[in-house]
């Protein structure tokens, strides 16, 4: 029997960064250009939306990751800021929330965060893209944030930072630069978070 595909939420302007949140049994994702975080609860069909107020480095909300310590805290890419918001499933289905800046990167550049993920050690990896459409300058980078939120530039000269993930054995880190139409594989050391590519 062929799988059934159906829309379960209203259309997004630019939906990105889906993340399954097991604690609340829901799907988290963002609508980048609407500055929104979404929760979808498949068991009930409930759809919860929070609009994030504009920050000092832009209004885009590019990824969302739950905190391991507080079930109501989410980490987001907010313009050039790594930020935190407090948003609970018990909040109204539509609300406006304020982001608290935790760290900033790329000061003076016309970039914003794009995709972001958390590694098994709790470090956030997040990459940048041009915010003015000028990708040829390769001014973007991929950053790794330590658990105390100190950023380290891991990959530079990026056109459009996008998908990232780790192999099941945690020995390989995969990274996409969409502008280059390429997936790169790096040797990965999980305890340190170091990557290397000898090619």
UniProtKB/TrEMBL annotation:
Its cofactor is Zn(2+). Belongs to the SMP-30/CGR1 family. Binds 1 divalent metal cation per subunit. The keyword Zinc applies. Keywords: Metal-binding, Zinc. A divalent metal cation binds at residues 16, 162. Residues 14-197 form the SMP-30/Gluconolactonase/LRE-like region domain. The keyword Zinc applies. GO terms for molecular function: calcium ion binding; gluconolactonase activity. It comes from Hyalella azteca. Substrate binds at residues 112, 114, 132. Gene3D superfamilies: TolB, C-terminal domain. GO terms for biological process: L-ascorbic acid biosynthetic process. This is SMP-30/Gluconolactonase/LRE-like region domain-containing protein. InterPro entries: 6-blade_b-propeller_TolB-like (IPR011042), SGL (IPR013658), SMP-30 (IPR005511).
């Amino acid at each position: 029997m062929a799988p059934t595909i159906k829309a379960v939420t209203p259309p997004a302007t630019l939906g990105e960064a889906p993340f399954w949140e097991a604690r609340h049994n829901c799907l988290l994702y963002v609508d980048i250009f609407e500055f929104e975080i979404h929760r979808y609860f498949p068991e009930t069909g409930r759809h919860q939306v929070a609009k994030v107020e504009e920050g000092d480095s832009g209004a885009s909300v590019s990824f969302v990751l739950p905190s391991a310590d507080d079930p109501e805290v989410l980490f987001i890419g907010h313009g050039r800021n790594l930020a935190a918001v407090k948003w609970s499933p018990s909040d109204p289905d539509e609300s406006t929330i304020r982001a608290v800046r935790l760290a900033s990167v790329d000061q003076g550049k016309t970039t914003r965060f794009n995709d972001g993920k958390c590694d098994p050690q709790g470090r956030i990896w997040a990459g940048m893209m041009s915010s003015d459409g000028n990708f040829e300058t390769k001014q973007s980078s991929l950053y790794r944030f330590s658990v105390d939120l100190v950023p380290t530039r891991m990959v530079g000269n990026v056109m459009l930072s996008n998908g990232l993930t780790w192999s099941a054995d945690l020995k390989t880190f995969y990274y996409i630069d969409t502008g280059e139409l390429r997936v790169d594989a790096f040797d990965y050391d999980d305890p340190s978070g170091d990557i290397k590519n000898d090619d």
